[in-house]
Design goal:
about 300 residues; mainly beta; Methylamine Dehydrogenase, Chain H; about 0% helix
């Protein structure tokens, strides 16, 4: 498992041991591994770094990117890489060459927040109050969607094992695409809150939702919503990301400002262990083909989200 941090660089957690991996820069915003075994690292100020067998190659403003702060990454099954700098532009990279994706919208008002590659070589694109887009060529095209989603700030994108797309928003709850229709989950339907920070699917097909208050919900395969951890009743660290491993554990990546950051593997309601890291660590997760900022593990069900 790979762990990216806010100021301490990159760590690898393996067999119970947390080891540091030296990087040219220390602020990690996103991680993913491609089909060839490259680890792609989105940096805050260092652009995009590709690591393979501890050698590095950087993509930044000197190689054509608009910014050196990379906030979102996703990788396609063919090895193509999608990335989003902090200026909200979208890039598509093949064989290490990145091109900006054309946007048919007012550039100043259009900001990409997250991206999710799917199995067809296309990608889903979330924006800041401009709705959900899909790119299967160029330029981006907006898909028909509910007004509540079109006007929302999209924060997470996840593809489940059945191929359905889940969209987490800041203020409008959670959406799921079912064919050409949308299923909407919000507080009125039982969610803890309408601002979603992280989503992940476990091995049973249940979807877990994390919130800034540290709360956790779980949506079963029958769409039953269960509160796993209630942030209104007890103080928890804000959740940045979630990760599900093959052993049934749910890893919760948190950041607590002046308080320590912990990675907590959970099975159901039970905490199995806790690894405490120093105060300014940013924890997250990623899987090949899917995006989840901060932690990467080859064997888990991943999702997509921004690192903010």
């Amino acid at each position: 498992m790979w762990i990216g941090t806010v100021s301490r660089g990159l760590f690898r957690f393996q067999n119970g041991v947390l080891a540091s991996v030296k990087l040219p820069h220390n602020h990690v915003r996103a991680l993913l591994e491609d089909t060839e075994g490259n680890l792609w690292i989105g940096m805050d100020g260092g652009g995009l770094i590709r690591m393979r067998e501890r050698s590095f190659f950087a993509h930044d403003t000197t190689t054509g990117l608009s910014r050196d702060v990379i906030t979102a990454l996703s990788v396609a099954s063919d090895g193509a890489v999608w990335l989003v700098p902090d200026d909200g532009r979208l890039y598509h990279g093949v064989n290490g060459v990145f091109q900006m994706v054309e946007v048919q919208a007012e550039r100043a008002a259009f900001k990409v927040t997250c991206v999710l590659a799917d199995g067809s070589g296309a990608a889903w694109v979330g924006t800041e109050r401009q709705g959900l887009y899909r790119v299967d060529g160029r330029p981006l095209r907006k898909i028909p969607q509910p007004l509540e989603l079109e006007s929302a700030a999209i924060r997470t994108l996840m593809r489940d094992a059945r191929g359905r797309i889940w969209i987490g928003t800041a203020g409008s709850g959670l959406f799921r695409i079912e064919g050409e229709s949308f299923v909407h989950f919000n507080q009125d339907r039982g969610l803890f809150a309408n601002s979603v920070r992280a989503t992940v699917e476990d091995g049973a097909g249940d979807v877990w939702i994390g919130y800034a208050e540290g709360s956790l919900d779980r949506i079963s395969t029958s769409d039953r919503i269960e509160v796993i951890r209630d942030g209104s009743r007890q103080s928890f660290l804000p959740i940045r990301t979630l990760l599900a491993t093959d052993d049934g554990a749910i890893w919760v990546g948190s950041t607590g400002g002046a308080r320590p950051v912990q990675v907590m593997p959970l099975v159901g309601l039970h905490e199995l262990a806790r690894t405490s890291l120093e105060r300014d660590f940013s924890i997250g997760g990623r899987r090949t083909g899917q995006h989840l900022d901060g932690i990467w593990s080859r064997n888990f069900s991943g999702g997509a989200q921004t690192a903010g």
